[in-house]
Amino acid sequence: MSDLAGCPLCEGDGGALVWRGERLRVIHADEPGFPAFHRLIWNAHVAEFSDLTEADREHCMQAVALVEQVLREQLEPDKVNLASLGNVVPHLHWHVVARHTWDSHWPAPLWAAAQRPRDAEREDGLAARLPQLHQALRERLQHWARPFTQ
Amino acid sequence: MSDLAGCPLCEGDGGALVWRGERLRVIHADEPGFPAFHRLIWNAHVAEFSDLTEADREHCMQAVALVEQVLREQLEPDKVNLASLGNVVPHLHWHVVARHTWDSHWPAPLWAAAQRPRDAEREDGLAARLPQLHQALRERLQHWARPFTQ
Lengths: 150, 150
Known about the structure:
Number of domains of chain A: 1
Distance between the termini of chain A: 19 Å
Strand order of the largest sheet of chain A: 1-2-3-5-4
Radius of gyration of chain A: 15 Å
Largest sheet of chain A: 5 strands, antiparallel
Order of helices and strands of chain A: HEEEHEEHH
CATH topology of chain A: HIT family, subunit A
Number of helices of chain A: 4
Shape of chain A: globular
Number of strands of chain A: 5
Strand content of chain A: 15-25%
CATH architecture of chain A: 2-Layer Sandwich
Helix content of chain A: 25-40%
Oligomer: homodimer
Largest interface: A-B, 35 and 36 residues
């Protein structure tokens, strides 16, 4: 793994760690208004998705799809948003965000202007499901990763 | 392919067609301020990335990475942004956008508020390179897709 001095995703987890594998980790992000905001972070410092080898890209997107699938099963979102931007922190990370029609920004991207006030009650309801979600994510990611670590 | 009545990405190309394969197509989007905005659109109507089979997900992301790579080679962007949102049009499509430090929104996401006025001269300079970019995209995507159509 290549660490880059000064890169916040090399020097720290980048959020509340949910699961760490050899090549990538999943964190829960503290993003107001979006209780089910997660990031999948490639452990090594690479800037662009196409900097990865094809094998690593497949590994990465298998994990992205798995996180998305578990979010869908556990939270029944109206949509999942995936994004790899990295303009501010050019260390490969995928935003994986469960979106709901009641959220403050729906149907706009979460980076756009809010469409309505936040719904604290529904946000709290979603947040209450995070422990079970994170347990499910750990189990599924660990099961998925097992063949790579043998 | 399953078409959905009323879905703009089932009923049309969704932009200026650059290349069409059996499973996906690449279009150039007319998005003011971002001359190098492309979308990779899955031809069949599926909403979420994890609705695809693993083989189709790999196929999809091979193409996303290839489009990103050609954009990097041809346009030397400061960053490429990838996103699959679909809140408004829930038909799987990937935004693949070449970002530059001079663009109106840098380093914010392109859906956020602008950070500065648009630079018409540099936008025009980027737009002038699109014919060559699109030719390169067609050649590379066609070469990549050949094994799948034999």
